[in-house]
Each structure stands twice: as C-alpha cells, then as structure tokens.
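User: Um, any thoughts?
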Amino acid sequence: MAITVLVGSQYGDEGKGKMVDYLAKDVDFVSRFQGGDNAGHTVINDYGIFKMHIVPCGVFTPGVINLIGTGTVVNPDSLIEELDAIEAAGVDTSLLYLSERAHLILPYHLELDAAMEENGGIGTTKRGVGQAYAFKILRKNPRAGDLRDLDELERIIDSAKVAGLAPNLNYDIPREKLETWAKRLVPMLVDPLEMVHAQIDGGKNLMFEGQLALLKDIDLGIYPYVTGSHTTAAYAAVSGGFSPKLISRIIGVVKAFTSAVGDGSFPTEMSDAESVPLRGTGENPDDEYGARTGRSRRLGWLDIPSLKFATKINGFDALALTKMDKLDELREIKVCTHYTTDSTEPVYKIFKGWLSDTSKCRTYAELPSEAKDYVEFIESELNVPIRYIGNGPARADVIDRM
C-alpha cells in the first residue's frame, strides 16, 4: 500500500492534470481532494483533449477508482456537463464516485461571486467556489448526500435564506432542476471514509490530486488573492479522513517558468515582450490561457525563494518539472535566486538557452547540456530530485528519470 499526494507548487496551472493522467497507470485509486470547478486540468491522451474541472484525472485509466472527495465543492450542472463530455469521448465513468460529504455549489453562490467581483473583487473565475466554502463554514450549505432527500435539500437552502445570508440573492431553485441533479448524481454517491479505508486496508495504491497550488492556499497563500480551500499536501489526509502518517510520497509539480491567473503579488512577472515566446496564440491546448476562462495568464520567471517556501510547507519527496519544451526558443532564461535586502526586487541568475527542440527527447541523456544545467540547478537549490520532466502536452510527453 502506498499513498501519493500530488500538488502544485506555484500559483496553479503547473500541469497537475497531465501528471495525474500519466501516473494513474501505477495506482488503483485517485481522488480530487479539494477545490471546485474554477480551474482546469488539461489532459491529452488517446481519448482526446480535455479540460478537467472537477473529475479526477485518473478517470481515463481503465480499472482505476476515482473519487470526487469530501474537501471539494461541486457545481452539479458543471459536473454533469463534464460527465457528458468525457462519456461522449468513450471514457468509462462506472468507477467514478462522489463523496456524500462534498459540498454543493448552487446558483446563488455564482450570483454572489459575480456581485463581489463587480465591487472590488480579486479576479476570481466567478464559479462560486469561495462563496460555497463560506456557506459551508457558516453551516448553511447542502452536501452532495442531501440530493437523496430533496425536501431536506430545500430546507437547507431555505435556512440560508431565512438566516439573512446575502438576502438579495435569488435562493429559488426549480424542483425540476433538483430532480435532474439527483437522478444523475445520487447513483454516484458513496461514503468516502469507507471507500478510502477499504483501499488502504486492501493494500491498494492511492493518489490524491490537488487543485491550484500553494500560493493560492486560503491560509498560506497570497491572501486575499487566494482560493477558498487548503491546497497543501497535508489537506489530502484531512479531507480524505486518514492519518498523514500513511502518506508515502508527495510530488510537487513545478512549471519550468511561472504563471498566474487573477490579481495579487507576482514579483517575477515578465514584461509583455518577454512573455510572447511562451504564451502562444491560444490555438494549442498547452498555450498560456486559462483552461476555465480562456483568460491569458500572467507569465513570469521561475522563483526559487517561492519554491523553497512550497517545499518547506509540503515536504516534497520528488518534483515534476513541466513545460520544459516551452523554453526551447529562448536565448536567455532567468531564474530568481533571491530578493534584495528589503525583499522587494528579485535578483536573477541568467542561464544560456539551449535553442533546440526538446519535445522529442524521451530520456534525460537526450536533453541538451544547457537544459540539464537548468534542471540540476533547480534540484540543487531545492534539495529535491526532479523525477519527471514534462516536454510536451500529451500523456506520453514525460521523461522519467528513474
């Protein structure tokens, strides 16, 4: 039995979905353990190209059990739309389950999110994620298990309205919509604790898939420009309902440069001219545009102090360095090694670019020496081995240095 937790180490968009899809061949169970449908995990494999928003990215591997876990917040309409899309591509979803303890995102959460963004917001995707978590903390939010009893579901919704939480919202949801959600999602409901511990007791290999990344953590990120949940590896154990002592390996996913969506501090942000070679046009699935919104991402150079912070908090055993191929055409590559004494300005080390196509490399030995210098510098600074190197958007585009 082994438990692997895979999380982002920057602002998100590091390539977690690709890595989960790649690693799922080695596990029996995958669970999304936090977050909502406000971000996308891009997966490219034999089934096609997918932007996964709430379904775990292990769903494409036959025989693997997938769980939308307790720590998530789930928009039923969004989940059903995602199910329709992957099932239409021929993906078997019979082993995909939904925690009865996961909280629901309802239409009034989206309405509140949009209203807040219009009045000094933080650049959210307006998916109601933070608002659903807020109602959860106030104990006025329904859980997925409440879809089994629609009268009870309506009572919980009414209790939020009566309590005066955002009284100008429209809390009325047609019964027909509730019935549609229940018909589709109730068959997926499970007791997550029973399921997870059955896997553990059965000696199975489990993987927990994080969403967003450390700098968006509600407690440890760049508050207030953060998400509504905990994005750290430790939260996999909390929301999964098992002892953190059982975690065997923690993998941090690091993009070979940095990107961010939304507002907030970003000290290594590039100029527009510097970002052009990395951004792409939006025509390709791995271009630097948000998987959920299509917004162009803010791009920046790799930030070693920030990655050291992520390593300290998460305790990475291994790293997956993704999108190395995106640096192929750069003559110079900057890496922030530290900040000035007043912590305001990044100080950069300049690396010579390799100016060659790395996307066809399948072994570490095939990489240009300059690319190896880049990889090994990151390893030495973080004192964590880079086990995987992503050099293209598809599942197969991974160098495993084992």
Summary: The domain at 103-185 is CATH 1.10.300.10 (Adenylosuccinate Synthetase, subunit A; domain 2). The radius of gyration is 21 Å. The mean pLDDT is 94.
